[in-house]
Amino acid sequence: MNLVVHKFELRQPSEVYIAASRYRKFWCYRKKFYNKISEISHFLHLFRFTQPKKGAREMGGTIFTEINQVLSSFPPFNSFRGGEISATEYQKWVQEDGFGTVEGLNEDKINLSARFPRDKHEFVRMVLSQCRALDIIDDDSYDAKDTDEALGKVEASYEHGKYATYIFPEESALLYAIVRNARPARAVFMGSYYGYWAIAAKAAMPTMDLTLLDINQEVMEVAQKSFGNCGLNVKTKFTVADAEEEVAGIEDIDLLVLDAEGPKSNAIPEDYRDKAIYYPHLKAALNNLKSGALLVAHNVILSNFTGGAYFEEKQRYYRQQYKKFLPLLQENFTYIVLDSTEGTLVARKN
Ligand SMILES: C[S@@+](CC[C@H](N)C(=O)[O-])C[C@H]1O[C@@H](n2cnc3c(N)ncnc32)[C@H](O)[C@@H]1O
Fold it and tell me: Given this structure, which CATH class describes domain 120-349?
């Protein structure tokens, strides 16, 4: 069975959006109020946050921290995070006012904030049970305290170098939980970048045999340093190579993570452009995946649960990117696409 399950809103859309006319007036007032507060906080924000934010970016770090830091002075963001307005209402603010008002976040970053789950642990619990219901995983137990402790330790020692990652907190927590429950003996990351997602997996099972594959030597050096800092470099291989070629020599894989991206240039073959590269990567790894092996892939946004033009276009783009990858999955796996901030696909080989 191949399913795409969309995250349901935990709250009903606000009555403001049900469009009873007597609420329209209230909505206009509320919008003006938000705009005014946004103007004031934006003004303050220029003084309070511009320098630290720039500094943080130069040093690298998570995009989540950057987005959170910039938006924390904007009331609509806080209302959304606090559960007072729905993702749909917040996304509307982002598109109508936010993108023009908030300085320092590009269009991708501000729009991604609308996909932040209200509570990362609640999100992980919900999606684990969806994976369990489809028999993709056998065990959906989840210990929020243990996850926070383990990933908090990693966070404290992780050096991002000059790099930034779009792995979001619920995505690290989800991978941690999957590994903690499934106990894969051997895992491979194709396009590991500087290892930030991979270390969430390794922290869940330090005895796991892990291979990071990336063509970029500089990012691999950053990964190696941070894994060393965290004491998680035992049984970890840091391989600078083309993942497609290298994976052919790694047998009996229990967990495969896809996160490479090729250049976006039209000058290279379509199958290797941007995220379309998942197709040749999966094809190369397929025979080396054990039956029942797990596959996790990042950047699979196939829904527009927040509404609006930005994610409508994003999902159209990704469907195009994955036009060969998804049929290959359908033939060989049971899979689910989860609405994490950047979209995470979880699959089990048949
Ligand atoms: C930019 S990262 C993905 C980022 C990740 N989603 C995050 O936010 O942390 C993609 C990585 O794929 C790597 N890559 C691209 N093509 C590759 C290939 N053929 N083999 C191995 N790695 C590759 C790039 O060097 C890069 O480090």
Answer: alpha beta
